[in-house]
Amino acid sequence: MLADYGSVALFLVVAVLFTVSTLAMPPMLRRMGIISKNRPNPIKNATYECGLQPTGKAWVQFNFRYYFYALVFISLDVVVVFIYPWAVQVRQLGVSALIAIVVLLFIVIVGVLYAWKKNVLEWK
Amino acid sequence: MMLESYALSSIGSALKPLPADWPGGFWWHWLVFTIIAILFVLLMVLFFTYFERRAMGRLQARLGPNRCGPFGVIQPIMDAIKALTKEDIVPYNADKVVHWLAPAVAFVPVLLVFVVVPFSNGAMLADLNVGILFVVAISSLSALGIVMAGWGSNNKYSLISAMRAVAAVVSYEIPVVLSIASVVLLAGSMSLNDIVLAQNIPFILMQPLAFLIFFIGASAEINRSPFDLLEADSEIVAGFHTEYSGMKFALFYLVEYAEALLLSVLITTLFLSGWRGPLLPPWLWFLIKVVAVFFVLVWVRTTLPRARIDQLMALAWKFLFPLSVINLVITAIEVLAWPGGVPWPMLFVNIGIMAVLIVSWSRLFKFGWGRVKVEA
């Protein structure tokens, strides 16, 4: 089993090398003179805003509408972490574990329903 | 060994698994399957870009690319050469490091997921016993790359697109994961190979509702049309890759199609009984099913108009999530009622439950249909 994770880790190394070498290929070819050089100029390298002069920066404070979504998501994701081990072992754990999971889901769904009633799940 | 397994595959379920270190030894196994996985992703992505453009062409009553080579088959290679030779434009006020890293961060997780995909019985790089959880965990990392691209470009359209990407991923993760959990309930294992082995009846028949939720949710998560809000050309130019050109843009294109490939592979493995099938060798069955699923994706893309962002969020939280929870509980009860395996006539019951649930739940609220609620 540990050997499997070892091969995954080795594959990760290969994947990173592959990606980085793909990204590094055009600059290398450019240095070797096989493909033509970059010719930057201020107009070309300006931020694209439909042809107009860009106004200000994009790094501004953002209306974080789905902050609430993120909170609901975190709570549900934690529930999912509990559901998966149960799902694998459900035949051995039997009915009592099912009842426990239903109670857990009920608690969380009450929370989601509360958020729903409070209009948190509306995208306005 | 290969020939033997082909001969056996004609008998069907009598197929013997490949040994865990198939060509012999850890390093040979790793080398062979690393090459297979990377070649599989690259070649299938090249094929998919061609296939999608041709199929979309036919579906929209036009020809599609047909100039390069016979029937335009070398079009993807020409596209790759074009991307390679294009000038690399980086906006002068962008965050250069984040801008450069973003395509790599998006691509590596998608590539990494393919280590647990079985191409044939036991033919995979690593048969992790947490297989499907690994897929879910790693594949959602590539949203990080999209956010980095949106933020690093210092472009308003890119930033809006990145925010939409996060909203979509966060919303659709829950129904997708819950629908996978009901598949895990039936199979009793998280290893993808064991899930395939458990499918004497394909799970698309035993879990039709989970299949629909997974299909809709996952195609929203990988931003396929009709949920491609982060690349909505009519609203936000080209979304997060507005400021990308050359090889970096090509890498984002690669990510998009590799994710579509991942979705096809997962649907094949989880719901369409993976490499199993009569007569043909297992890997060929696998490829046929993957391409068939991808064709459905293309078909959906050409058929449906793009959803609005509020519809997208409402669909996830008010429709897919409750249905996936109900489906999970029903599946658990079925599995506990028949611990030896759910009998096949239950598939009619499940299809009936699906129809009743979808019809009755969609009565609860009406979204879209051309009506916009006006607030006073």
Describe this structure in words.
The complex is a heterodimer of chains A (124) and B (376). Chain A is 65% helix and 0% strand. With 124 residues, chain A is an all-alpha fold. Chain A has two domains: 1-56, no CATH class; 61-124. The relative contact order of chain A is 0.06. The mean pLDDT of chain A is 82. By secondary structure, chain B is mainly alpha-helical. Chain B has one domain. Chain B is 66% helix and 0% strand. Chain B has helices at 2-9, 26-59, 75-85, 96-113, 131-139, 142-152, 156-187, 192-197, 203-206, 208-221, 233-236, 246-271, 282-303, 309-337, 346-364. The radius of gyration of chain B is 22 Å and the shape is globular.
Strand and helix order of chain B: HHHHHHHHHHHHHHH
**Separate helix tally of chain A:** 3
Radius of gyration of chain A: 26 Å
Contiguous uncertain segments of 5+ residues of chain B: 1-14
Mean pLDDT of chain B: 82
Q: Helical proportion of chain B?
A: 55-70%
Number of domains of chain B: 1
- How many β-strands of chain B, per DSSP? 0
Question: Largest protein interface?
Answer: A-B, 67 and 77 residues
Structural class given helices, strands, pairing of chain B? mainly alpha
**Number of DSSP helical runs of chain B:** 15
Q: Give the N-terminus to C-terminus distance of chain A in angstroms.
A: 49 Å
Q: What structural category characterises the helix and strand content of chain A?
A: mainly alpha
Q: Give the terminus-to-terminus CA distance of chain B.
A: 72 Å
- The run of helices and strands of chain A is HHH
Which segments of chain A are poorly predicted (pLDDT under 50) over 5 or more consecutive residues?
none
How many runs of DSSP E, i.e. beta strands of chain A?
0
* Beta-strand percent range of chain B: under 5%
